[in-house]
Amino acid sequence: MTSGTTTSPRTDAVIEAKDVVAGYLPGVNILNGCSLVAYPGEMIGIIGPNGAGKSTLLKAMFGLVRVHSGQVTLHGKDITNLKANRLVETGVGFVPQTNNVFPTLTIEENLRMGLFLRPQKLTERLAAMWDLFPVLHDRRRQMAGALSGGERQSLAMARALMMEPSVLLLDEPSAGLSPVRQDETFIRTRHINKTGVCVVMVEQNARRCLQICDRGYVLDQGRDAYTGTGRELANDPKVIELYLGTLAKDVEEARTDKPAGHEHDKAAGHEHPHHQHEDGVHTD
Ligand SMILES: Nc1ncnc2c1ncn2[C@@H]1O[C@H](COP(=O)(O)OP(=O)(O)OP(=O)(O)O)[C@@H](O)[C@H]1O
């Protein structure tokens, strides 16, 4: 567990935001020196109180909110304030929370739109998406507007994946879904992550987010207040006081492989190695 701005000796970051100061209006900063790093293969969750700047951080990483100072890098290359189309070309995929599909286009047309920068790979990428999302293949000629919330979320992710991004930025993928569909979305996201795509997602469902992600960031007032594994965050008294409330107990109860006699591990800082189920759900 670290507190405040994170620095790391590692040099293999996939995407990194360093001390980002950003906002929507001149003179009004929403992010006040916010940092986040995602390493190869990681799935990162961003949680925090309402208005903390979680979505703004994702948007700043995707060039949708002006970064006034600080830097965003992809594989060490500066991508700060690049336009969204350049970022997509470079390897960043972004799925906004709403309006993330073209409702009057078919599912297949939506996926074609996702690859308009590289049409020569269409057949190959469509096949990969049908593999990942069989339900989309079955309904490929239907209008996207006819999809359920969970299916639409799948299509939005598939569209972003058409360009084979190094990192997928997801803004509240479980928003508006029933608990069952939320869980399917989390597990599907973990599955996508296991195909080699780094995932950074903002989530309101902090409990589930901390269970399934490799690491989390707790944002507060536009800063990365805390970072650590889900278990570290869920058990940190300061994080609980700031945001989580009774969450630590919930996360602990969700453990299915809790061996007898390991009660001391519940204390923050007594980490033991992760155990991971095939669906990617951490249960340590
Ligand atoms: N387009 C915008 N123009 C001006 N201010 C905005 C805009 N979008 C967000 N804000 C402001 O930025 C602040 C942070 O918003 P943001 O959506 O990043 O928070 P969040 O942590 O994602 O919150 P929530 O959990 O409620 O979605 C809020 O005070 C919000 O009012």
Automatic annotation (TrEMBL):
GO molecular function list: ATP binding; ATP hydrolysis activity; branched-chain amino acid transmembrane transporter activity
CDD domains (UniProt xref): ABC_TM1139_LivF_branched (cd03224)
Domain ABC transporter: 15-246
SMART domains xref list: AAA
Transmembrane segments: none
Biological processes annotated in GO: L-amino acid transport
Keyword annotations: Amino-acid transport, ATP-binding, Nucleotide-binding, Transport
Recorded family membership: Belongs to the ABC transporter superfamily.
Name of the protein: ABC transporter ATP-binding protein
